[in-house]
Amino acid sequence: MMGEVTTHSGSCACGAVAYEVDMALDGLIECNCSHCYRKGFVLGFVEPEAFRLTAEGPQTEYLFNRHKIRHRFCNTCGVQTFARADGPDGNPKVAINVRTLTDIEPWSWNATRVDGRSF
Ligand SMILES: [Zn+2]
Fold first, then answer.
1. CA-CA-CA-CA torsion for 67, 89, 17, 4, nearest 10 degrees?
2. How far, in Å, is the centroid of ligand 1 from the Cα of 63?
3. Residues 25-57: pLDDT tens digits?
4. Topology of domain 7-102, CATH
């Protein structure tokens, strides 16, 4: 059910990077900035304590823009499951790529489009 915090699992396509996250599937965003739009991200934001890596295969870190968000993608399949960033309040957050959750039906979420391109 939307709005309820439950434990979800997710992974990249090849499974080298896998995680568990406690989150509600609401407040999700799609962004039109040069990076998010290309990757087709659907993002939800959680506290670092709510995110646990269960498999940590080789990854590459990608920094762009003001280098405030640490994007990491799997070296084998290229899928990015999450990013670490500081939120507007300065506290660390983890951005989950909801498209990499493996325990929910595809398109079972709703996301709000945000105009990141203009920020
Ligand atoms: Zn992979």
1. -150
2. 19
3. 999 999 998 889 999 999 999 999 999 999 999
4. 2.170.150
